[in-house]
Amino acid sequence: MQNLENKTAFITGGSKGIGYGIAEALVTQGMKVAITSRSQDAVDKAVRSLNQLGKGAAFGIVADVRDFESQQKAIQLFVEKWGQIDLLVANAGIGHFASIQDITIEQWQETIDTNLTGVFYTLKAGLEALRKSKGYFITISSLAGTNFFAKGSAYNASKFGLTGFTQAAMLDLRNEGIRCTTIMPGSVATYFNDHVPNKEDAWKIQIEDLGQMVVDLMHMNPRTLPSKIEVRPSMPG
């Protein structure tokens, strides 16, 4: 089992939801974690909570995955502070759901720019650091990355693309010692798409479950790579 204490992780969209659940699990393992968000208030609040866990450490960076220069600056800040990136998690994502007739050009572009192009920017910005550490790159896709549904044209396109992107990156980078995995959750109890988690969400995947999954992947012997993981609630709601 790999010792995670003092290992480092960079997580996009880590101020809440799945990204926060992953950050919390990693800090609990003694890792040094940076989270990004477009909101200074959100990132500050999340970092305060993470640093109360007492084992690892966290800091926050305001950055936008849709802007390559912003990602480069965020990665640079991270490396300057903690020296290397052992784990890079591309988690930031949004969803606009509407029929082809109703979805706007702006909604389409924002979905693709955040969920797909933003992941490419994140990996591109962090690639040299991952090469040096022989690190791990994890993306958070979705079951919507293999299962299409009505009013999902933009979201399906972004997540189908993300699933394919991560698998292609895995083939490109594994000979350099960089592991790549995409995690594809079904229903998760998060704030996604303006939902507020509540007691009715007990049947859903919880953010701490996905945090534990990332910890388990980090603990796994590097000779073995689960490259694509579908995860769904045990029972439908």
TrEMBL record:
Source organism, top-level taxon: Bacteria
Span of domain Ketoreductase: 7-191
One Pfam family of this chain: adh_short
Any GO BP annotation: monocarboxylic acid metabolic process
InterPro entries assigned: KR_dom, NAD(P)-bd_dom_sf, Sc_DH/Rdtase_CS, SDR, SDR_fam
Family, as annotated: Belongs to the short-chain dehydrogenases/reductases (SDR) family.
Protein name: NADP-dependent 3-hydroxy acid dehydrogenase YdfG
Lineage: Bacteria, Pseudomonadati, Bacteroidota, Cytophagia, Cytophagales
